[in-house]
Amino acid sequence: MDITIRPALDAEFDALGEITARAYLDDGLLAFDSGDAYRDALRDVRARATTPGAEVLVAVDGDRLLGNVTFVAGGPLADIAAPDEAEIRMLAVSGEARGRGAGEALVRHCADRARALDGCRRLVLSTQPGMRAAHRLYERLGFVRAPHRDWNPLPDIPHFALLAYELTI
């Protein structure tokens, strides 16, 4: 598979939104079910791509969409990143492309982007406890758990927590 990473195109936003929502739903990662409000956020690639400080990157093989990630270098989409950090959000790979290196290519590209930012010291991300394959990928690429940054985006659900990882660059 010949994987290229590039900025997402407007014409791809709907398809990328479906890939993202489907990946989370199929893996049982939405907090409740297909009616989970986060599903709408996962589908709204246009909103992420047009938010200051954020860029949606896509992995492609020719004209085939494999997956996408939102790279955040400040701005309102930063959940846990400090001013001297970049953040990875909403990484998703289509079911057909899993295990073929698209997720790794996207994460490596984000790490390279973070290294190129003046003053950026770390790349951070949040992940659900059940995303074990993603945890293995992050750890293989040098990310380490940062339990002091774990957080709950849904305060009304006390046992819902996200795990934090960071990569010093």
Give an overview of the whole structure.
It is a single chain. By secondary structure, the protein is an alpha+beta fold. It is about 30% helix and about 25% strand. It has five helices and seven strands, in the order E-H-H-H-E-E-E-H-E-H-E-E. It has helices spanning about 15-25, 35-45, 45-50, 100-115, 130-140, and strands spanning about 5, 55-60, 65-70, 85-95, 120-125, 145, 165-169. A seven-stranded mixed sheet has the order 1-2-3-4-5-7-6. Strand 4 (about 85-95), helix 4 (about 100-115) and strand 5 form a beta-alpha-beta unit. The radius of gyration is 15 Å and the shape is globular. It starts with a strand and ends with a strand. The model has no long low-confidence stretch (mean pLDDT about 90).
Summarize the model shown.
By secondary structure, the chain is an alpha+beta fold. The protein has five helices and seven strands; from the N terminus they run E-H-H-H-E-E-E-H-E-H-E-E.
Q: Strand order, biggest sheet?
A: 1-2-3-4-5-7-6
Distance between the termini: 28 Å
How is the biggest beta sheet arranged? 7 strands, mixed
Low-confidence stretches: none
Question: What's the helical proportion of residues?
Answer: 25-40%
Q: What spatial form do the alpha-carbon principal axes imply? A: globular
Q: Total number of helical segments?
A: 5
Please report which band the strand proportion falls in: under 5%, 5-15%, 15-25%, 25-35%, 35-45% or over 45%. 25-35%
Structural class by SSE content: alpha+beta
What's the number of extended β-strand segments?
7
Mean pLDDT: 91
Radius of gyration: 15 Å
Sketch the topology as an H/E string, one letter per element.
EHHHEEEHEHEE
